[in-house]
Amino acid sequence: MGSWGTLGPALLSLAGVALGAGGSIFGQYLVSRASTRQLDVQESAAHRAELKNAVLKFLGIASQVEMAALMRPVSDGAADGAVLDRLVDDLWLAQAEIDLAARSEPLRGSAYRFAFCLAQAVRGEMADPSALRGPQAQFMDAAYADMWPGRRRATGDPAIPR
């Protein structure tokens, strides 16, 4: 019994140290997981902001190109042609920005297809301007999916309760 009296407290101390070390390691693991999640959220927010800026720039230029294509005079003047060429060049540069910022291939592809359709409209190769709506809608859907992966896009009028 004498040996338990001296050995018991030493074993209990050793068990306490092991339990404390295990608890400390587990706590560090939880902190590391929380930090990783927080970093993922911050990176995702930064990606959304960068992509949003690229998408808005692309849409602004696409709108200008579309308006210029629709308002294009029947006789192509040299001055009008130069303005349209500059707008189309700006459109392709904005499309390249999306290509660099996008995480998904569907967004890259839909941005290219929309820009290509707009370039066709400027050259007068597109008879029906409403043909731009399909590529535009695909681009917007792909942009939403790239910014918020896994989230479904709401459809319909939000003012109408379901």
Largest sheet: none
Q: How many β strands by DSSP?
A: 0
| Distance separating the two termini | 77 Å
Order of helices and strands: HHHH
Report the mean per-residue pLDDT as an integer: 84
Number of helical regions: 4
Helical content class: over 70%
Characterize the quaternary organization of these chains: single chain
Unreliable stretches = none
**C-alpha Rg, in Å?**
30 Å
Structural class: mainly alpha
Q: What best-fitting shape do the alpha-carbon axes yield?
A: rod-shaped
Strand fraction band?
A: under 5%
Describe this structure in words.
The protein is an all-alpha fold and 162 residues long. It is 78% helix and 0% strand. The protein has helices at residues 2-70, 78-101, 105-122, 133-147. α1 (2-70) runs parallel beside α3 (105-122) and α2 runs antiparallel to α3 (105-122). The mean pLDDT is 84.
Give me a quick take on this structure:
The protein has 162 residues and is mainly α.
Task: List its traits.
4 helices; mainly alpha; 78% helix; 162 residues
Structural topology:
Blueprint: H1 2-70, H2 78-101, H3 105-122, H4 133-147
